[in-house]
Every structure is written in structure tokens, then in C-alpha cells.
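Complex record, two chains
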Amino acid sequence: MSNNVVIKVEGLSKHYLLNKSAKQKSDTLYGNFIDGVKNIKNITKKREKQDFWALKDVSFEIEKGDRVGIIGRNGAGKSTLLKILSRITPPTKGRIEITGNVASLLEVGTGFHGDLSGRENIYLNGSILGMTKAEIDAKFDAIVDFSEVEAFIDTPVKRYSSGMYVKLAFAIAAHMDPDILILDEVLAVGDAAFQKKCIDKINDLSSSSGRTILFVSHSFSSIRSICNKGLYFDSGKLMDVGPIDTVITKYQRFVKETVAQNINVNVKPLSSTGEWDVGTDLSVEVSWERGRFAPGWHCDLAFYTFDGVKILALQSQMFSEFSSYGEYNAAEFIIQNVGFASSDLRMDVGIRKDIDTPYEIVVENCATVSPSQKSLPLYKRQDVIIVPKATCKAIKI
Amino acid sequence: MLINLAKRDFLVRYKQAFAGVMWALIKPMLSILVFGYISSKINNTGNTALNFVNVASAMLLWQLFSNVFNDVSNSIINNANLFSKVYFPKIIIPISTLLVCLTDFLISLTILIALFVIAGQTIHWHIILAPLFIILTMVNGLGMGLYFATINVKYRDVKFIVPVILQFGMYVTPVIFSTRYYLERMPEWLHWLFCLNPMVGAIDGFKYALFGGEAIYNVNYFIVSICVTFLFLFIGSRYFYKFERSFVDYI
């Protein structure tokens, strides 16, 4: 174990017992009554339990100054890991060695009380996060300044807008002084300008004083801008450790393979550089088993930013070249980058019978596309609407 | 952090209430009036004011106990959101609850002082012992509270059981009547059982500190009662520390 290792995790597992789901309920009143009586008899017996391993045999090392992004689908064990590292819940098996003091921010505004003013909450929350009164006194002005809620500092926080609430809460956390900072998906709040401010603050913390940071997020762009190392979890197992870019690539490939419900999505930029530069095309090929869909079915794409804002939807029947599937088994969309101001876009695919029927198949989050941010056109207005240049046709693969 | 949490609970308790902190006075005052009246009717003593002082001293101490016991046993689940997100020694929560109850109690002591003046009661040198019995009362509430707080994490029935215990408890504790009144009306073999109630020692001791004289009926019983207090604290805190680490998984 080299001297630089600040977190060492060996064979870590966390086990939970779940109550087994109730049996099929009877649909008559009498049946319900009988079930109820049976349950009363059973109540003294031990209920059947189900094993659940939130984390299975996880081992890794983190060195001082590392900024680690933790990614994985919901329920992969990311939050459980953070809870164990911050000593909130004990592990079932395994060993953890941590050098230095840890501050964890698993939720913004822990312990905030709506009836107390912003000022009182700063002191309360600060002390819960482990700061002394003198420390808070010294940083009070900086916190208020960072939070941008100076005018309302003596108003009870229950009268704050949710944005103000979160800003104040994050401002307090950002002024903690730990060796190791643990953050769980706390940047998903606040407006874009404030998010950027937070990311800058975190980068500042780690670069100026070599602080170690563990960061869970579903936003690849904020992970990329903060982290240098990645941990990728799936169903409680550590799938990959390494430089952040390779870990993210591996995760994206995995998501594409498993979630697709036998719908294959293939995304590739058609430019010579391999990037989706402004002015070049991106090919999105959605394919399926031949004969699965009758002629006349539609295949649609939707693109979201990581904040969940839908910025582009393409429907196959918008394009005149497109007739129907049937003997075809794929739809190919060609989309030109007319200048997307977002570096990561999440893509959903939906397939349905007709334009006004609900989708039969939706493959969410099946790919992440990254429009290049180089040579972006300058928009004079913020609310400019981007009209995509795109085509779609049915093809055989 | 302890102080800040206690401050939060205290500030929040009377926020947006018109009478504010006055409620810390009004609540005990009403029960003293009711039970003081009942007691003076039944005891038929000549000096009603003195009777009121007696009931008030016992009643305030009992209310301190009942607040500590009740609030501590609910404190863990009420603050579940805190320690499922931040790590800190969990004992801070019950202790801060204790401090809030103590503040309320100190405020309500003004009632007792006022009654002392009205009744013209003189003060003994024993009064320096009074803080001891206030502490004893809190230890009592804390010990039992910790035990029930731990059970409460898994079985929320505690929320309903504790008020019932407190309601019945008041009638087997020398609050309205003196220990002497109870014991003289009980068969001999019940005396020991009566004195296993830890609040008997605390209240009798407090009365002794305030009025001197015969408040302590039998020193043996008194000592038993105090021993029970510390036994409860021992059991309560052992139990609490044993399960402390797994609270988060059950809450």
C-alpha cells in the first residue's frame, strides 16, 4: 500500500433483507377477509425474507488528490457505497481504511428547518456537517455571497423558492474543509449558471489543496469536467476502474447492449475527424429483427440534455423519403450538427404503430451523443430555436 | 452541534405560536391548578397554599420526567433524515432533546418560585440538594427514553405505549399525594413494588430539598428507588449503543 492511498476498500459487501412481496391479493371482499384472517394467524411466524446484496465484494484504492466519478444505473449500489464510506451504515463484510477526515454531502440541506431563517440554518447545517462555530463565523460572508440569497438571509427558509433553498444549502457544503469530500448527485439542482459555479468551486477545492473527491452523478458532462478517475458499478458489482473517459465509454457501450430490448442502436459521426463537428452529419441507425413490425410503423428519436430538457425530436414520418418498414428492418437518420450548445445529449428511441398511438417500445437513454463544442455559431439571442437538418429512410441491414 | 440542535428544537417548538415561550408556563400551570385543587379537597389540609406548593414541586418534576421520556423515545425516529445522510455520534440527538426539556423546566420553575412567595414558605439549607434531584429526574427519563428509542426504530408501537405508561405512571408516583399517603393505604408487601418506581426517589428527594422534614418516608425505599434509576440508565444506554450502528438500516 503506497503512502498516497487515502481510501482502501477490500472485499466490501452490503446485505439487506427484504420483505417478500405480498401474495396475489384476492379480488373479492370475502376473499380479502379470509386472507386477512390468515395473515393474523401468520403474524407471529417469521415472515419470509429475501436476500439482497446492494454491494458484492467490491475492492479498490483511491489516491490522494484523485477526483473520482462514480457511475452506474439506478440501484447499482453507488449511494450504498457512499453511505458506507461516510460511516452512516456499516458494511456487512469487508474492510475500509480511510486516511484523513471525511465530509459527505449526500443530500443538500440536511437538517434544514423551514421555520428557521437562512442565517440560523447556516449555523445549524454547518455544525451538522462538522464545522465549529468559529469556522462558520469566519466563512459566513463567503457562504452568503456564494449563495446569492443575501437579501433573504433573515427570512425563514420555508418562504424561499426551491432554487434559493438549494443554493444556500450548497453554499454551506462548498465551504467545508475536509480532506475527502463525498458528493451524491447534488449538482442536479440549481440553474445552469449556478451549476457551473459549483463545478468551478469543486475544481478549485481539489486543485488548490489536493483534496480527494468522490462524486456520483448521471451527468457525464459534469463528471468529465470534475473527475480524472472513474468507478463503474452495476448491480452491486464494480465493473471497471480507470481513467474517467474509458470508464464512461465502457458504461455507455454496456447500457446500449443491455437496455435495448433487441433494438440495436448504432451511432456514428460521418466526419473525417470522427467527432460530430459543426456542419457534419451523424448517422443514427435503429435496427430490429426482420418482420417484427408491420408496414406503416414509425420510429422516432428524441434528444435530451442531461438536465432532462428535450431539445430535438425527429419522427420518421416527417420525411418524405420514408415509406414503411415491412421488408425493411432498420431506420437510418442522418442529422447535421447545426450547432448544439450542449456537449452531451441523451437519446431515446421510440417505436409505435401510428402517429397518434402510444409507443409500443421505448428505449430510454440508449446512447449519448456528443456534439463538438468547437466553432459553435454565436447566437445573439438565448432562445433561438435550432431547426435541424435531418433525413430519415428505411433500409435493409 | 449539540447546542445548535437543541437551539433549533427549542426555537422551532414555539415558532408561530402567539403566546410563544409562555406555553412553557401555561401547560404546567394548568395541571398544577387542577391537581392542586383536587389534592387540597381530598387532603383537607388547613393550608391550601402550602398544599399547592407541594403539588407544584412534584408536578413540575414529573412533567420534566414525562417530557424527557416521551421526547427522547421519539427523538431517533424524528431525526431519521439527519443520520441517514450525515454521520455523527447518535447520542447527540437524545442529549439535545434532554437539553430542550431542561430549558422548558427551568422556565416553568418560575411558577414554583411564585408559589413559594405566595405561600410564605421559608427556604431550608437543603435547597442546595435540589439540582441533584433534577438531574436524577433527567437521568430517569433518559435511561428509559434510550431503551424505548431503540425499540422505536423497529417497532413504532412505542409512540403509543409511552403516553399510556406516563398516564398510569403519574398515579403510582407521589405527585398528587405524598408517599406516606400511598404507603399507609397499601399492604406491606406492595411497598417494595411501589418504591421500585424510580420517580419516587427523585420526587421525594426534591421535596426534601425544598421543604425538609418528613418527605422521605423510608430511607431504604428511597435508596432502592435511586438504584433503579441508575439500573435503567445502564440498561437503556447499553441497549442503545448495541444497536446504534444498524439504526439506519431499519428506519
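Note: Chain B touches chain A through 21 residues (CB under 8 Å).
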